[in-house]
Amino acid sequence: MSHEFDLIERIRGQVGRSSRVKVGIGDDAAVLDWSQHPECLVTVDMLMEGIDFTLDSATPEQIGRKALAVNLSDIAAMAGRPTACVVAVALPRRGGFELGQRLMAGLLPLAQEFDVALAGGDTNTWEGPLVLSITVLGEPTGRGPVLRSGARPGDWIFVTGPLGGSLSGHHLDFTPRIREAQALHAATTLHSLIDISDGLAADLGHILQESRVGALLEAEAIPIAPAATGMSRRDGQSPLRHALADGEDFELILTVSPQEGERLLAKPPQGVTLYWIGQVTETAGLSLKQPDGKLESLSDWGWKHGFRDQ
Ligand code: ADP
Ligand code: MG
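^ inputs. structure came back:
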C-alpha cells in the first residue's frame, strides 16, 4: 500500500529550485527569502468536491490547476506578484494516490508559468470526498496593493474581458489576470480592484460596499461572453443576466478617475483588453440602465455559500 510520504516524495521530485525558497518540501516548515519586501500578501482558497467541482465533469489535472488559478486571481486582484504556495489536500483513500499525482500534474505547469514555488503542504487521506486548499504568498507591486475600498464617485468602471457562462467550461481553463493587473497598476492610478469570482454584480457590490459608494452600469456596455449566449439558449435566462450574475469568470473589475479612464480607453496597456461598463455614483446601490433609460436594481445578486439553521 502506498501512503502520504510516497506521494510527497513524488511531488518533491517534480518541484524545481527557486531562489525565494531556502528550505522547501521536506522540513517542518518552509523558509522563504522575503528580504526584499516589507509586505507579504497572503490568500487561501479551498475547493470541495460536490460544491466547486465534480470529478465526473472535470479532470483531476483541471481541478489542480483551478485550485491554484483561483488563488493567483486573488493576488492579481491586489495587483500583486505571486511568489510561493503551499497545498493542503484531503484525498479519498480509494484512488487517492493517483488522484494526488494528477492534481499536481495540473497545478505545477501553472505554478511554473507564473514563477510560483511550491514550498510545502499537507497530505491527508480519508473516506470523504476530495478537498483541496491552496495558500499563496505574494508581494505588492508598484505603489502597493490595490484595495476594494478606494472607489470614488465619478470613477469609470472597467472589466478586463467578456463575462458569463463560465460554468460551461471557462472556469476550468481561465488564465488569472496577474500580468494584466500589474500592467494596469504600472500604467495608471487604480482606485479599486477586484476579481470576478461570485459574479459581476456581486463582486462590484463588494467594491461599492467597501468604498461606501454606488454604481450605475450601462446594459449595452456589458461585454457578454459567447458562453453566456450558449447558456441562455439552454436555460432561457438572457445572456446579459448571465454576464451580470454568473461567477467564476476571474476577470478583473477596476475603477479609475474619469481622466485616467479616458486615457486608458484610448491606449490600454499592452496585452490588456478593457471594457468600460459604467460609473461610480455617490448614492449607494447598484443599478443597471437599460437602452430605453429604465433603471433596474442589481443589489443582492450573486453566489453565496449558505448556512443551514438546523
Ligand atoms: P509535518 O508532519 O511536520 O507537518 P508532513 O509530514 O505533513 O510534515 O509533510 C512533510 C513535508 O512535505 C513538509 O515539508 C510539507 O510541507 C510537505 N508536503 C506535504 N504535503 C505536500 C503537498 N501536497 N505538496 C507539497 N508539499 C507537501
Ligand atoms: Mg513537523
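DSSP finds eight helices and 13 strands in the chain. Residues 148-297 form a domain with the Phosphoribosyl-aminoimidazole Synthetase; Chain A, domain 2 fold (CATH 3.90.650.10).
thumbs up if we can close this ticket
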